[in-house]
Amino acid sequence: MARAKKTTTAKAKAPAKPAAKPVAKVPDGAAQLVDALNADYAAVCKRVHELGVADPDGRKDQNDIAIHQNSLDEIKSGKYEYGRVFKTAKAGQKHTKLQYEDGQGTTVVGFIDNKTGELLKAADEKTPGDPAGYNLNDTNSLKACLGQADWGANFIHTPQS
User: Fold this and answer.
1) Whole-angstrom Cα distance, residue 137 to residue 125?
2) Is residue 23 part of a domain?
3) Cα angle at 125 between 120 and 130, to 5 degrees?
4) Are 117 and 137 contacting, i.e. CB atoms less than 8 angstroms apart?
5) pLDDT of 141 strictly over 80
6) Average pLDDT along the chain
7) 88 domain residue, yes or no
8) Which range is least confidently modeled, 18-22, 29-33, 128-132, 144-148?
9) Is 15 part of any domain?
10) What residues contact 61, with CB distance under 8 A and at least 6 apart?
11) DSSP class of residue 103?
12) How far is Cα 26 from Cα 89, in angstroms, rounded to an integer?
């Protein structure tokens, strides 16, 4: 006796996923801020090595002077590897992290609100804190921020007027 063929019913289609929210654009001032922080760090490194080469009273070890001179030569040729590099990284829809990488890992120094352009202190590595007093979308505020930007990111915690 032949078996009856099973009939199947069509499965209901899964509901369509809602459209993803558009990703907020990082404020244009963020790239300028990163450039200013990296430039300040490079200038400090250069000054440190220039002071290491200077030997007005002839008391410095010649090997130390040679090490500093070699670093200055690498800076001049563009081959010097800086110990700290500032960059931005997405931190979800609302914020962009302002951070630096060094031999110890990555350190978040602040956050940028993608919608308003406001620079925020970092409460911790993942959480934005209080406003730092600068808005990267405002020309005057951005100019003030870039003028105060320092490689230690102190400008975020103690903005100057």
Assistant:
1) 24
2) no
3) 25
4) yes
5) yes
6) 87
7) yes
8) 18-22
9) no
10) none
11) T
12) 10
